[in-house]
């Protein structure tokens, strides 16, 4: 029989056990071993059955057991220690509280997904896991962050396989009352709500739930409320589901509703109002519109409000390809804003202009969320050094005339939260070496360039650790593989072979990630006979553990999974290669530590960062990867291998994949496997152990989320807070008025003439100095509005300046009768080889974060004096 109504019955904890409820509701337990050990001791069987979820554990443990624990003095002492430790963690001063640079009083961090723990399944892949790690690291550092997202009633799908290996999706219903959440409540005890206006006079209502991530509150908006019609109730039904309007409503609720939720939270709790708003990818970009509307209500016009909002906004892009950006039909967006819908006090055309693709090759009929994000943020970044470069090139059309390396998009390379991803055995090994407190501090706050203490760990201890972790993975894989085959319809009598799957003494390679085509799940299958030889090598075999989900609408990705599963089902190799369905955080926490090598073979440069290899490295796993994302930045032969890329323009896709697969096979055959199986005099693989040691020593401190968040604070949050404070209503109006005046007058700004004193004909000596004299027409502008620069550097075969350096020139006379000014200044010839210079005029104002901010510049024409400058070869 089916129940006509569902509700949650909560346990009544004895008074002595009340701290358990506080511990269960703060997600710090997900990365704090002592708290998890305490919950496990409540009832080991129930803990295992709950999947390590304290809320589910407390809902299933018997009243009799709770009564026993309430009288157990030893347990109560442990409970007191852990509860007191959490209170100290939440309230005490940490790294952020020691900063003297006046960082922001609070930061709001918006993301469409958050991967905190498997017990709160609100993530699909790397973007969400990164957001979760960002919150955890901010908590460890004491950064006053407020997370904002949506609560998806189905989360992301659960994955299983059919008998023939086709991905199948399941969407279990999540009850917020059974999750580690509490409702945000108004002072009268009612649940806090936000709402949005929809076309036709309808409203979209959402309640606000709160998860506590250590010190950091995470606000999640949920549209499944009785006040909504069926369609509106489904807005937060599932992550990345539905059609275009469904996605638009999700992103309006996240951005606009999210700001309203933050305002409500600060009003109810007294938390400081955010000075900085961080948009994690374009999905939350509408938050800027809501903040402009707030300022318009306070008396600013749209342009001044835009200036004030931009000053305190940080935008992070995660995609290296235009296809990865949300783009909506212009008319669809227009329907949802204006007098008959949301933000009625803002002109719809101004909103549409923020997302318009005005650059060459853009589509004027679409609304681009990343373009809006960049226009609403004074500071933007990619997520690795290479991805920053790719992003500057991809979005350079928004700053016409500027070289890609001058586009104002910097980079902060992602990091991972070590306490979440480091196996307890690895942590214990570090603790034995330098102590638990120093180990925890090194993994959270970071700050050092090297972990030199790793050098003192004996080879035997490192190798014993690696084998222990590999053995744990083998047991985990067998258990998950058996469950997968039973889901596929196999009977117990068919599954005896699973007891022989994988070997704890065989080189183990891991590959786990989402399955879009560019990640090339099946590159390893290009030559199946050669792969089979590697798997079954008599002296140096390898074994491979693979996991990954394809998007439900991506049949191409599902075919890749099916192809790989078909190969892994072959009785000849199924003990050496496995595909595990339903990849998620719980699986990943076993997979990363247990692998010896982490494989990554995307199409370069389409991997923005790729943090799974970082998590593996923190456990002593070596990386074998294409030079993409973070590996392009930090690879060294001391601690891993680089797969060569065949990215020449004359190479078609099939040939490229053949060449790169062959390079992968050769690396495995000639270098990776021999290094693993080679034994030194003591019977240990000395050279392999040294690579593990180098990985931990040099990569460990770099890949930390603590390092990443400290960079955000120093390089983006603190400058954004300063800019926010500087943009009071008067300065915001001043900035907006100045920009409007400069844009209106720029058509008359030009370089009239360039000359150099004692200009050389074709050669010059290193160390010589040229005196430049430049005549410019500023039209209605004054020298205070601009900067005239000399730009110089080496030139390529087409006379383009590379590795450019710029120096400002100073006005020496003017205006003359025709309104022209003369600028002069020295130009040092400080490098040898082909050399050239030019001059340019840029807008200049104390409130600009970058000279390229307005996307305006003037350069010499072909008729101007010495043209675009002088070339010396």
Automatic annotation (TrEMBL):
The UniProt catalytic activity note for this protein reads:
[(1->4)-alpha-D-glucosyl](n) + phosphate = [(1->4)-alpha-D-glucosyl](n-1) + alpha-D-glucose 1-phosphate
Q: Where is the DUF3417 domain?
A: 13-120
Superkingdom of origin: Bacteria
**Enzyme's top EC category:** transferase
Q: Please list the coiled coil stretches.
A: none
Q: Does the keyword Glycosyltransferase apply?
A: yes
Keyword tags: Allosteric enzyme, Carbohydrate metabolism, Glycosyltransferase, Pyridoxal phosphate, Transferase
Query: EC number(s)?
Result: 2.4.1.1
Q: Which Pfam families match?
A: DUF3417, Phosphorylase
Looking up PROSITE patterns in the UniProt record yields:
PHOSPHORYLASE (PS00102)
Q: Does the keyword Endoplasmic reticulum apply?
A: no
Cofactor(s) needed by this chain: pyridoxal 5'-phosphate
InterPro entries named among the record's database cross-references: Agluc_phsphrylas (IPR011834), Glyco_trans_35 (IPR000811), Glycogen/Maltodextrin_Phosph (IPR052182), Glycogen_phosphorylase_DUF3417 (IPR024517), Pyridoxal_P_attach_site (IPR035090)
The entry's function note states: Phosphorylase is an important allosteric enzyme in carbohydrate metabolism. Enzymes from different sources differ in their regulatory mechanisms and in their natural substrates. However, all known phosphorylases share catalytic and structural properties.
Report the family membership: Belongs to the glycogen phosphorylase family.
PANTHER family reported in the protein's UniProt record: GLYCOGEN PHOSPHORYLASE
Please state what the protein is called. Answer: glycogen phosphorylase
Organism name? Streptomyces neyagawaensis
Lineage in the entry? Bacteria, Bacillati, Actinomycetota, Actinomycetes, Kitasatosporales
